[in-house]
Amino acid sequence: MSSQHGSLIIGEVPAVAGHVDVHVESKEATVRVKFSATQDPRFFERFLKGRPSVEVPYVMSRICGVCSVVHLTCSINAVEKALGVEPSEEVLRLRELAKGLEIVQNNLIHVLMSLPDFTGCSDVVSFSKMHQSIFSNLMEANRLALEAHKRICGRFVHIPTLGVAAHNKPVSRYELETAGKLLHTVARKLEETASDLADAWRPPVEGFSDPAPTYCVLNGDERYPLFSSSLLFSDGVTVPVEKYATVIEEIRSPHSNAHYALYRGRAFYTGSRARIQAYSKIIGCEVSVLAKTLSIDFNNPFDNVGAQYVDVVYLSRFLGDLALDLADRFRGGIKPSHVEYSSGSGEGVATVTAPRGVLIHHYVIRGGRLESANIITPTVMNARHIEVAGEALVRKLVERGESEENIKNIIAALVRAYDPCLPCSVH
Amino acid sequence: MVKVKIDGVTIEVEPGTSVLAAAEKAGLRIPHLCVVKGIYEGASCRLCLVKTPTGRLFPACAYYVYRDEEFISDSLDLRIERKVNFEFILKFHRMECWLCPRKGNCLLAKLSKELAVEGTPVCAECPLSPEECLLTKGVPCLGPITLSGCDAECVESGGPCWGCRGPISRVDVLENAFSRYRELGIDTETILRKADIFWNSLPEFEVVKKVFNRVRTS
After folding, report:
1. Using CB atoms within 10 A as the burial measure, which of B31, B55, B67, B76 is most buried?
2. Which fold, A6-426?
């Protein structure tokens, strides 16, 4: 910024889904970054009141077309918890597989979209011309992940395969085996590409350390948790998901249409960077090798994208094993199943791992109809953290004497590193 | 041999070949419905219309070439002609796709997609046979009253139709569909409530509700 007193309107952040404005104000020594979701609120929690509980998940999945399976599974889990329904084990595993597949494909797209920011190319097209083999490998991995997704879920978005206490699509052993093999190929392809990518891969700002290093992930002991019944924070606090409201507070933001989620009054982050740090014991050596190849600094918010790369490699292998294990156990394939239940009353909270972090759905159901709902999306959790990190970043950039144009681009890159898809914040 | 030029592609054929056969030989697709080679070549559907550069229209299946000639098989006015002709064909087709043995492989549904004529329900593209139909299992599926064109992706993935492509506006099809729902004991209130998710703000939804009320009181 040219002067020490003034404001810089970064305006609408380009290359993201949804609309978000960033506004930087500096006054003497204080810098204030305002992250405002300018999209109109969509009132999902309000207009679903009174709807039959069995229909709720299908409408809730429309919160985001990109992460539809994640919202669908989380919503189904919350309804099941509220009604006290227990689906069979294979249904749960298939649900895990469907959701994991979406995370793999989704994070891969995020990596592809971030290529211009991390390689200094002006856009993805010019990157594809300069680094043809890397780009084609990444695209091929994405195609294979989609192919595997189609085998298990039937279609790409708003899948009707999953339902409350049900799995509707028959999945044959051949399909499970193919999906498993495809996922292993994805992992192998990405691992091969990592060393080539590392040469071109530089975060927009190196050596920038996170000013608020508190994170939130799902709690898992021995297994990478795609579903969990408790939340884990970086200070070691474990909270059962039913009591999420005691630690996570949602506040109305004065300049944004989205809410902020704060952990005991503090900003916190969630996503692949948090996951890789929290599950480093579960994931094991793969992290250190790949992270070293890509020289990922887990303390740098920009390196969330690098962490997603590592996450995708681990998850593809994990889900590949899961699919092959299911194929082994159910040699005749998995038939559609449905558990009978009575649509009564109850309260249910569910959390799942979403591509960009932790997603919480909380429903109260009375007489088979939705009475109230509360949804906290990863974008809402990250919103305040983007502001805090942005403030530290602007200070650092001003110190370095960067031009206004550069500051604009770097702040936009910071928002994109957290989350390139923002409509879920105004659900 | 004579030279036929269709949409700029020149091809040599035996004298007496139909324009449709010549186009097929050249790898061009002209939409057609009634012609079955060697069995019926009566030119009654009039979907395969082609025109000469001077603007004269011919059915491609029944016009045989004996000299060098030029035809146009794709233009805006031809598309409009075909569309009108196809709308007439659909109008007189009894649409009870949920009971039809050709369900899932319906030429009318394919043509309606190709010619952008909205008329067939999702059932026409549904891969389930009439015996496996979700309605017979009591699942409230919106297939019979929803426009086709999606290749019944949801049903293929195991779930019922949610009506995202919008309602059919043909009253007779709606009447048949609601009678079918009633016959199978599916609560029509459930159907309308489900339809409300996607059709809430559509003016056509009012027509659906009216037809539903008429069927209920009859």
Report:
1. B31
2. Cytochrome-c3 Hydrogenase; chain B (1.10.645)
